[in-house]
Write a structure and sequence with these properties.
The chain is 74% helix and 0% strand. It has 152 residues and is mainly alpha-helical. The chain starts with 11 loop residues before the first helix and ends with a helix.
Length: 152
């Protein structure tokens, strides 16, 4: 199956390359942040480990985990482009934009939620998490639709 060359379709190699670059960059960033969290745990940093900071610790751990997940999904998306899974250029571009939004909102919301939690509630920035989750879910749904349309 060849990919469309209409004016609506993205430049396939450019799109794949963009997701490869950002996937690896995001993976590096979130693995590094995971090591920073491990360092704060190892050095018993009160700002991170004190009992009153339990919410911060949980939210920042979730930011690290979800950021790593989104980075891997970017790499998988790039792989799906190079394997010619996408026949619909408009749908591929929409999924691409959703993945970039998810990369910002999902881990960013968890991180912001842990900056200044009060009385056991996360900070207001945590409201970005469900929006980012919906973007990620929608992008994966579009990829599933696109792959499901093809018969091997």
């Amino acid at each position: 199956m060849t990919q469309p060359s209409s004016s609506e379709s993205p430049a396939w190699s450019t799109l794949a390359s963009r997701h490869q670059v950002w996937g690896w960059r995001l993976l590096l960033l979130f693995l590094f942040l995971g090591m920073v969290l491990d360092g704060m745990h190892g050095f018993k940093v009160g700002f991170y480990l004190d009992p009153q900071n339990r919410m911060r610790r949980e939210l920042w751990t979730l930011a690290h985990a979800h950021g790593t997940l989104v980075a891997v999904v970017h790499l998988l998306y790039s792989f799906s482009i190079t394997m010619n899974w996408w026949a619909n250029g408009r749908r591929a571009k929409l999924a691409s934009n959703m993945l970039f939004a998810a990369a910002l909102l999902l881990p960013g919301g968890f991180f912001l939620g842990g900056i200044a939690p009060s009385e056991g509630d996360p900070w207001i920035g945590v409201w970005a998490v469900p929006v980012g989750g919906l973007f990620l879910l929608s992008a994966v749904f579009l990829a599933t639709l696109e792959r499901g349309r093809q018969k091997d």
